[in-house]
Specification:
CATH architecture of the largest domain: Alpha-Beta Barrel
Bound molecules: 3-methyl-2-oxobutanoic acid
Shape: globular
Strand order of the largest sheet: 1-2-3-4-5-6-7-8
Helix content: 25-40%
Number of strands: 8
Distance between the termini: 64 Å
CATH superfamily of the largest domain: Phosphoenolpyruvate-binding domains
Order of helices and strands: HEHEHHEHEHEHHEHEEHH
Radius of gyration: 20 Å
Mean pLDDT: 96
Structural class: alpha/beta
Largest sheet: 8 strands, parallel, barrel
Low-confidence stretches: none
Number of helices: 11
């Protein structure tokens, strides 16, 4: 009997991604890096959690995801796992350049991330390491692909720019997406790809696509936590919609605290011990 999945917040297993999409739902995915935020996510309607290597930028202050390390990804994955509990399905980014070091090394790195709490791995690109993806999948590891603007290749791409423009580039993207699908990837993130190309890819594939800067034709969307909550006053790319005014809200709360300390209204007697 075909099970109709109910959409009740975070997915619990890899098949939930495709099941929710075939049930006519669009997937919402958000990055998360710490236990406290994970608890908020667990109480929300969001479908899926990604411990992205964007942590190197938005948490650690580096200027690219190339600075993410295996230890860093493992520590943040473990924190998110502690916040979400044992049941939630967590996707963690394989940091640069573990997917290019060979199958054995990639498997060792994935082992570290899974022992830290990851349920699945996301890795960037396809050409040149499809065998590694296949090896991971055959080893029982759910793999999510990531095509289009692949931030770990920012130096080669010449910046954070839209990818897949023009017939040849679009064809190459489709070819790479098909390669990932053929070796068993369960979903693919499409980052900064023109709307028409992302929609065409989504229709051509049998696995869900999760877009970021790639329009509404994807099977779902992913946003970085800090972007979604408007916490980065100095960074607002066109594809980001801020669903809260995090920077100003938090700053106002901090100002309120500083003023209350300054004028002696915090702490009061109820907040103190006699
Ligand atoms: O690391 C990350 O946050 C990501 C998303 C932007 C998809 O890979």
């Amino acid at each position: 009997m075909g099970q109709v999945p109910e959409k009740k917040g975070l997915v619990k297993r890899v098949t939930d991604f495709a099941n929710r999409v075939s049930a006519g739902r669009r997937l919402s995915m958000v990055t998360c890096y710490d236990a406290a935020s994970a608890k908020i996510l667990a109480a929300s309607k969001v479908d899926a959690v990604l411990v992205g290597d964007s942590v190197a930028m938005v948490v650690h202050g580096h200027d690219s995801t190339l600075m993410a390390t295996l230890d860093m990804m493992a520590a943040h994955t473990a924190a998110v796992r502690r916040g979400l509990g044992l049941e939630a399905f967590i996707v963690t980014d394989l940091p640069f350049p573990w997917h290019r070091k060979g199958m054995r090394e990639a498997l060792d790195a994935v082992d570290v991330l899974m022992k830290a709490g990851a349920s699945a791995i996301k890795l960037e690109g396809a050409s040149g390491h499809v065998e590694t993806v296949q090896h991971l999948v055959e080893s029982g590891i759910p793999v999510m692909g990531h095509l289009g603007l692949i931030p770990q290749s920012v130096n080669q791409l010449g910046g954070y720019r839209v990818q897949g423009r023009g017939v040849d580039a679009a064809e190459r993207l489709l070819e790479e997406a098909r390669m990932l699908e053929a070796v068993g990837a369960f979903a693919i993130v499409l980052e900064c790809v023109p709307v028409e190309v992302a929609s065409r890819l989504t229709k051509a594939l049998s696995i869900p696509t999760i877009g970021i800067g790639s329009g509404a034709g994807c099977s779902g969307q992913v946003l970085v936590w800090q972007d979604l909550l408007g916490m980065q006053a100095d960074f607002k790319p066109r594809f980001v919609r801020t669903f809260s005014d995090g920077f100003d809200d938090i700053r106002q709360a901090l100002d309120g605290y500083a003023d209350a300390v300054d004028n002696g209204t915090f702490p009061n007697m109820k907040e103190s011990f006699e």
